[in-house]
Design goal:
With about 375 residues, the protein is of the alpha/beta class. It folds into two domains: about 1-165 and about 330-360, Quinone Oxidoreductase, Chain A, domain 1 (Alpha-Beta Complex), CATH 3.90.180.10; about 170-310, Rossmann fold (3-Layer(aba) Sandwich), CATH 3.40.50. It is built from twelve helices and 17 strands. Helices cover about 30% and strands about 25% of the residues. Helix 5 packs across helix 6. It binds zinc ion (2 copies). One zinc ion binds near residues 88, 92, 103 and 105. Keywords: Metal-binding, Oxidoreductase, Zinc. This is Zinc-binding dehydrogenase.
């Protein structure tokens, strides 16, 4: 079939709106008409930096309605409303353990822009266009998605508001809900309240964590963090960030989340922890760093990474939807909608930080 897609043809080139040919679904794939898609930081990074094969259709926070299913697909029907999430193989040991974020085939299935066999479902008059980015390539009117990446939702779910649940939101919320699991007496310091940090903040509030501290360079974001339930907000440019966190948490934070992937910030996160505290890293950025070993051995602190919220999206996305329905996860506070054709403006606003979470909508 013919679809319209925003094609990335170069790091600095604007998205190119093109008519592409999309293959028929394979036996395990589902054809989804995209209703909305979030713009995630990884889309921006991939367009500018990753060695993904070009041209490529990015986008990996799609939401839509099923139009066709492959012959082997079960549990999904034409007309179902769905949120899309990242791809996983379903056959490796980590997938078998219910931890698809750590799928052995995660990199090829999500970041190459091709299926596991390197084929792409997209082409433009015979030219290969990469089109299985995170199992979806949702910057397009339609996407072919592996059934494992499809989460069926109730028909009263707002597909526009909740589109970002499939990646950026579950990344931040899952780091708190699935990895840290803070109790009412546990404090949490969140470094960077962009989309991922704000999702972590909302999840921490939803599950009843103790003192929450938000650190960011933007006064506007800190004000919004306060509105969303941060007890204390700290200007990240202040000389005494660590001292302020320690004071706010009566001796150090039990948990800290770094969304910045900047070494200087990560070092502060480790320093600001209470003894036995855990720092969780979710950002993509600097490749390596020196850690002060004394913090780990002398104080029992831990540092660990986390990807895609470290849970099973088939279980965790419904949890996020329940919180959203109850009003404890007001994603609308951090998002702004744009028409699909205004994708360049949406990406520019995300890049400049004027919009925390852009969501593209389709007619
Ligand atoms: Zn796997
Ligand atoms: Zn993402």
């Amino acid at each position: 079939m013919e679809i319209t897609a925003a094609v990335a043809r170069g790091a600095d080139a604007p998205f190119s709106m093109e008519t592409l040919t999309l293959e028929e679904p394979r036996p395990s794939e589902v054809l989804v008409r995209i209703v909305a898609t979030g713009v995630c930081h990884t889309d921006l990074v991939t367009k500018g930096v990753f060695p993904a094969e070009l041209p490529i259709v990015l986008g990996h926070e799609g939401a839509g309605i099923v139009e066709q299913i492959g012959s082997e697909v079960t549990g999904i029907e034409v007309g179902d409303h769905v949120l899309l999430t990242y791809a996983s193989c379903g056959t490796c040991s980590r997938c078998a353990d219910g931890l698809p974020p750590y799928c052995e085939n995660f990199v090829i299935l999500n970041t190459s822009g091709g299926r596991a066999d390197f084929t792409s479902p997209l082409s433009n008059n015979g030219e290969r266009v990469m089109g299985a980015f995170f199992g979806q390539s949702s910057f397009a009117t339609h996407a072919l998605v592996p059934a494992r990446s499809v989460v069926v939702v109730d028909k009263d779910v707002d597909l526009v508001a909740t589109a970002p649940f499939g990646c950026g939101v579950q990344t931040g919320a899952g780091a708190v809900a699935n990895v840290m699991k803070p109790g009412p007496n546990d404090s949490l310091a969140i470094f960077g309240v962009g989309g991922v940090g704000m999702a972590a903040l909302m999840a921490a509030r939803a599950i009843g964590a103790g003192t929450i501290v938000a650190i960011d360079l933007s006064a506007d974001r800190l004000a919004l963090a306060k509105e969303l339930g941060a007890d204390v907000t700290i200007d990240g440019a202040a000389e005494d960030v660590v001292a302020q966190i320690v004071a706010a948490t009566a001796g150090g934070a039990n948990f800290a989340l770094d969304t910045t992937a900047r070494n200087a910030v990560i070092a502060k996160g480790l320093e600001a922890l209470a003894p036995m505290g855990t720092l969780v890293l979710v950002g993509l950025g600097e490749a390596s760093m020196d850690l002060e070993i004394g913090h780990l051995t002398g104080n029992g602190k831990a540092v660990r990474g986390c990807i895609e919220g470290s849970g099973d999206p088939q279980k965790f996305i419904p949890q996020l939807l329940r919180w959203h329905a109850e009003g404890t996860f007001p994603i609308e506070k951090i998002s702004k909608t744009y028409a699909f054709t205004d994708i360049d403006a949406a990406v520019a606003d995300a890049h400049h930080g004027t919009t925390i979470k852009p969501i593209l909508t389709f007619d």
